[in-house]
Design a protein that fits this description.
Layout lengths: L1 H40 L10 H16 L7 H8 L17 H26 L3 H11 L9 H18 L11 H12 L3 H8 L5 H14 L16 H12 L3 H15 L3 H4 L7 H13 L6 H19 L3 H4 L1
Helix pairs in contact: 1-4, 2-3, 2-6, 3-5, 4-5, 7-9, 9-13, 9-14, 11-13
């Protein structure tokens, strides 16, 4: 009789725990489904690189990667990631003054709307109130990224989505790249060290790669404090010849062949370039970018970018000027 009583007492809490965990998991699935359904109804604007569904999926993917897998993502953080852009266009910018103050008021209104909608959906799904409140605060960015690891992860994920998916829109725009450099500089300053490492491993066009190097170096404080060596202004005929010669090179094989030759002469350099930003495909893009800046009016920017390459390489990869020679 004592054994049976012990089994009943010991078994009941375990069974209750299993039932509680099952109910929570079911509520989480309902919450994700409700959020995804709202995303699916949102129209994609022509100026958006990603629609709400794709954007939320990318945020969630980066959050998972930054945390080392879904198993290490808290429920509230996972839901906040999926709901990060929920109904972001419901509160119209045109309804607020066309001024900095109007911009701040609009952003505050968007955050308030998203917080209320997320909490409404998660409550409807049956999630515990503490999870609902936590997710609402994360979506509304009420938590400081400097003090809250979950808020920093969300911020990192948003920056990575911008750099990986939205930055390419600038390739379609004519004009000075100064604005793109400024935006990258601001974005880079918001990111953690681990997110910066992942950002460096993303694919960029030659144009955006140059802006990334310049903006990231400025954000890290690696801007030249003294005038760099002045690059020679090459004659137009020479510039044209260099570009024509490069156009005949097989860019897909160039990086691999260059590294193969480099390592055969100096094997110790293999570890120096063993990081994602120095992958072979980026060498071709870097050369294309530099050749595009050989015109006399672009040489000052060429100098800044070369300085950025050297400074960033020295800081994060142990690169020295002698290696470039």
């Amino acid at each position: 009789g004592g054994y049976v009583f012990w089994r009943l007492v010991a078994g009941s809490p375990a069974k209750a725990a299993r039932e509680c965990a099952g109910a929570l998991a079911a509520a989480e699935r309902r919450a994700f489904a409700l959020v995804d359904a709202v995303h699916a109804r949102a129209p994609k604007r022509p100026e958006d690189a990603l629609d709400e569904t794709a954007h939320s999926q990318e945020i969630a993917r980066w959050v998972s990667e930054l945390r080392g897998g879904d198993a290490f993502v808290p429920t509230a953080l996972g839901l906040a990631a999926r709901a990060q852009q929920l109904e972001r266009h419901v509160v119209r910018r045109a309804d607020f003054p066309d001024s900095r103050e109007g911009q701040r008021e609009w952003r505050a209104a968007v955050k308030h709307w998203q917080r209320q909608r997320v909490m409404e959906l998660l409550t409807q799904a049956g999630l515990p109130s503490d999870v609902v409140r936590r997710a609402g605060r994360l979506v509304a960015k009420e938590c400081s990224a400097d003090e809250d690891p979950d808020a920093q992860t969300l911020q990192d994920a948003s920056c990575l989505v911008f750099l990986g998916s939205e930055l390419r829109q600038y390739d379609c725009r004519d004009g000075d790249d100064g604005k793109m450099v400024d935006v990258i500089q601001q974005t880079w300053r918001l990111m953690s060290s681990s997110a910066k490492a992942k950002a460096a491993a993303l694919e960029y066009s030659p144009r955006t790669l140059g802006a990334l190097l310049e903006g990231a170096a400025a954000a890290e404080g690696f801007e030249a404090t003294t005038s760099p060596m002045v690059s020679p202004r090459l004659p137009r005929e020479t510039v044209a010849l260099l570009r024509e010669s490069w156009a005949k090179v097989n860019e897909e094989k160039f990086g691999d062949e260059l590294y193969e030759r480099l390592y055969s002469e100096e094997p110790a350099l293999r570890s120096l370039f063993a990081y994602p930003a120095a992958r072979p495909s980026n060498l071709s893009k870097a050369i294309t970018m530099l050749l595009e800046l050989l015109d006399s009016e672009s040489v000052p920017r060429l100098e800044r970018i070369v300085h950025s390459i050297v400074a960033m390489g020295a800081e994060f990869g142990g690169l020295q000027t002698a290696h470039l020679a």
